[in-house]
Amino acid sequence: xxxxxxxxxxxxxxxxxxxxxxxxxxxxxxxxxxxxxxxxxxxxxxxxxxxxxxxxxxxxxxxxxxxxxxxxxxxxxxxxxxxxxxxxxxxxxxxxxxxxxxxxxxxxxxxxxxxxxxxxxxxxxxxxxxxxxxxxxxxxxxxxxxxxxxxxxxxxxxxxxxxxxxxxxxxxxxxxxxxxxxxxxxxxxxxxxxxxxxxxxxxxxxxxxxxxxxxxxxxxxxxxxxxxxxxxxxxxxxxxxxxxxxxxxxxxxxxxxxxxxxxxxxxxxxxxxxxxxxxxxxxxxxxxxxxxxxxxxxxxxxxxxxxxxxxxxxxxxxxxxxxxxxxxxxxxxxxxxxxxxxxxxxxxxxxxxxxxxxxxxxxxxxxxxxxxxxxxxxxxxxxxxxxxxxxxxxxxxxxxxxxxxxxxxxxxxxxxxxxxxxxxxxxxxxxxxxxxxxxxxxxxxxxxxxxxxxxxxxxxx
Length: 461
Prior knowledge:
The protein has two domains: 2-13 and 100-460, Metal-dependent hydrolases (TIM Barrel, Alpha-Beta Barrel); 24-89. A six-stranded parallel beta sheet has the order 7-8-9-10-11-12, sandwiched between helices. It is α/β, with parallel strands linked by helices. It is globular, with a radius of gyration of 22 Å. The protein has 17 helices and twelve strands. The chain has helices spanning 19-30, 42-50, 60-65, 70-91, 97-107, 157-173, 216-226, 236-246, 257-260, 290-312, 331-335, 340-347, 363-374, 391-402, 407-411, 430-439, 447-460, and strands at 2-9, 118-120, 123-132, 174-178, 187-191, 201-203, 206-208, 266-269, 316-318, 352-355, 379-383, 414-415. The chain starts with a strand and ends with a helix. 42% of the residues lie in helices and 12% in strands.
């Protein structure tokens, strides 16, 4: 049987997210004109329209005083329901995320059998490979400096790493059951024999990094610690086996370098949180001023990142859409695949990189990504994470591929992604997102490539 790959999903809780950026993401998703709310104030608006279901009594006053635009007000109940659904998942400990996902896929509006099997257009699968993307929320400045406590958010990425790998270990060593004698929604976690072959999920995370948050020597140490055993000459089977052998085994001791090897499959970059893929055009030898020196240092760090990824055949996923956790004031410029990233690919054409979300929300970005993919010799991919919310999206994706000028090549560079749990702002469940892909009548002849073959080449090939 084959493996189904979700190369773009998240496993985190509210303790990990930069809530300054997270709040902005929620407000953005409501798609309202905030100018209309000037008299109410952003903070009151946030309380009333995002936390309404959680703080119903506190926000009652706002219910009577706020004067929402009628058309937008009609949309709020459904949007709030989805946001509450998201927050319900994120408020749970990350420790049980994978157990919960597994259980619901098989038990609530089930789309997968108890023995882990499912079919897509007649092709049988019995594994889902998840790639949780760790996000480096340690952005050094807050968007907008008009706060009293305008201190930089301190979200050490090591805390997220430890929690994620505890969740992975918990998944492989336990089973989840519902204790109906206590409550129809109360679950019990029961120990089981450690046997990854018996589990639905294989889990290969991406390490999040923003080079601005580290010194050059720290980045060198990260590659030595996490990717020491990676070789550019690894066969796909060798690379996958290295990762599989460590899956569920890591105990969270980040000081043990040997224990940290082979726990990440790739690297996650997130420009809207401040990562600049090509900070400047200064030469490393141009040290005439402190400004040039600082610029050269920033440049040296990103170039080290690209060199090591090419040398060790490490895949990169970078956010590429106009949504997400926006904290940088120049987010659009550094996220745009046609500006800084175009320079990166010109200087490092061997870089294996996935421009996530297929440039969602910006048609020109999507066109640019297609050009990068079709450029001879490129190793550029894209995923449609968050996009597959309905059948119309897959229709449009099919049109994009067929009109690209090289449908065969483009079909081999598109990857399935969900953007779970963030996609809960627009869809009810992971079950529904997968079901949309399973059942769409578009891209039928390409589905196996999009959800299996392409991902294996991107991750391991």
